[in-house]
Amino acid sequence: MAFAGFRPRDTAWTADDQAMTGGRPDLLRALMVQESPVPRDVDANVERVGALLGERSDVDVAIFPELFLTGYQLHHLGPLAVGLDGTAVSAIRRICADSETAFVGGYLERGEHGALYNSMLIVDAAGSIAGNYRKTHLFGVESSVFDAGDRLACVEVGAVRIGPMVCFDLEIAEVARTLAFGRPDVFVGIAANMAPFHDDHLIASCARALDNRTPLVYVNRVGSEAGFDFVGGSRVVGPGGQIVADLGCGPGVAVVDVPLRRDPPSDVDYLKHLRPELYRGQDSPR
């Protein structure tokens, strides 16, 4: 399948830039959506996606939190589940094609044989499905509600390669490290992170970027739902672990130019210094 991918912008990606960087842009202009979805109302949340993408014609990708299309629901999920061939995903694809903007966001996926996945949908700027990542590490009660994904892989969207993660995945260092071997330009983590775990994700997002010398975009939701209070804290982290932009803890929408990965100096390219023969001791989990 061929993907039109992110739409290059005159101010961010010139012909000289492409020649110098092997055809990849230096920046990704991201619309970061730190909002609360309407619980159990897929149509209303799809409409919100359409409104935001329609308002911003100057962004490459719009990023929405975990389970944004359905809300963070843990009960009576059958009627809420969305299929990749269903009307909600088709609507997102049309919105992306009409606005020439890519979409990354969370939803409850109806999988094969009745499986339910906490998934990240990735649609490119032409309206094609570029990727669909199923959360691999489930937190708390999620493990009794959702099925766990079984694959970690980068997703190519035009000239940009992203490493997808969902919420608790960020806290498992091996997830980002596995994706890093695919040399993503940027990690994208979406979350429904709740109190009292704000600092867990603050530290984890900075660490995952630094561990792998790869920028990271983290988009979390706000509001209250299903007995949880969600803490925001959406941010962009540079490849040195420094916070480039932070949306704070209240609702908000922001456009941020995200610096994409470039090969770090060899001395601090940790992937080149790995010695895997040392890392599994006799008492390590198997």
Automatic annotation (TrEMBL):
| Gene3D superfamilies, sorted | Carbon-nitrogen hydrolase
Sorted alphabetically, which keywords does the UniProt record give?
Hydrolase
Q: Which SUPFAM superfamilies match?
A: Carbon-nitrogen hydrolase
Q: Sorted alphabetically, which PROSITE patterns does this protein's record hold?
A: CN_HYDROLASE
Return one GO MF term: hydrolase activity, acting on carbon-nitrogen (but not peptide) bonds, in linear amides
Report TM segments. Answer: none
- Record-linked InterPro entries: Aliph_Amidase/BUP, C-N_Hydrolase, C-N_Hydrolase_sf
**Domain spans labelled CN hydrolase:** 28-260
Q: Name one Pfam family in it.
A: CN_hydrolase
User: What is the protein's given name?
Assistant: CN hydrolase domain-containing protein
Q: Which organism is it from?
A: Mycobacterium palustre
Upper classification of the organism? Bacteria, Bacillati, Actinomycetota, Actinomycetes, Mycobacteriales
